[in-house]
Amino acid sequence: xxxxxxxxxxxxxxxxxxxxxxxxxxxxxxxxxxxxxxxxxxxxxxxxxxxxxxxxxxxxxxxxxxxxxxxxxxxxxxxxxxxxxxxxxxxxxxxxxxxxxxxxxxxxxxxxxxxxxxxxxxxxxxxxxxxxxxxxxxxxxxxxxxxxxxxxxxxxxxxxxxxxxxxxxxxxxxxxxxxxxxxxxxxxxxxxxxxxxxxxxxxxxxxxxxxxxxxxxxxxxxxxxxxxxxxxxxxxxxxxxxxxxxxxxxxxxxxxxxxxxxxxxxxxxxxxxxx
Length: 275
Ligand code: HH2
Prior knowledge:
By secondary structure, the chain is α/β, with parallel strands linked by helices. Helix content is 44%, strand content 13%. It has ten helices and eight strands. An eight-stranded parallel beta sheet has the order 6-5-4-3-2-1-8-7, with helices on one face. Helix 4 links the parallel strand 4 and strand 5 (129-133). Helix 2 packs parallel to helix 3, helix 3 (94-102) packs parallel to helix 4 (117-126) and helix 9 (235-247) runs parallel beside helix 10 (258-272). The longest helix has 18 residues, at 27-44. The chain is globular. It starts with 10 loop residues before the first strand and ends with a helix. 6-hydroxymethylpterin-diphosphate (HH2) binds at residues 15, 17, 53, 57-58, 90, 109, 111, 131, 133, 179, 181-182, 209, 211, 214-215, 254.
């Protein structure tokens, strides 16, 4: 089944990473219990859905096997779904997506934008919501030299093509979301232009998701003396970027800081609804 977007306001997606914490020695089960607890806390803060990820997509990150990824995320997805939490699964692996959908996830969030044809099949079969994100290159190397003719036109064209192909292969049009993929094969200037011209991607007439939370372009812009601002110093910048995206028509925002995001979005919505 698909995820139904709330009407009249932006939906808030809380980020939940289930990757073993190298600083704790409690083992995977301990990390998973903490992950469930953190997800429930985000729901209390107003998250509409929880994006569960078992593989880091950070620039330079090494890939993990489908078995390992499932071992990390499946127990967490199962427990959250059992408790009635809406779950998005952040994966580019069809077998991981399939098992998580069977366990009750309603959104597949694929940062490769459905590059694997088997992923399209899984999503079509399940009738889930699918978030098609734009990425130039692959995580290991994507930040080395991203180039576009016109970043917004190029991203827009590639997203439209991926959506069209998914629909041709059986995904329902109303189940498709698009995401410009802030930070995925983009320079600081590319990211800024994509946010400022997000309305052009919204004009494709799919719900648009935006992920700006704590991203490195914010660290770069707010840093000083060549040092990027730390993750803790990126909250206000994340909220500013999110509100611009909301103004341009974004329907979903992916965030690490749910309470602050909900408050900023509420205020922005009140202004946008007036007059
Ligand atoms: N960004 C990250 C991961 N998944 N999915 C979508 N749809 N859009 C995004 O912008 C997006 C995403 C990367 O975020 P990062 O800060 O590298 O890691 P995380 O948020 O997983 O902690």
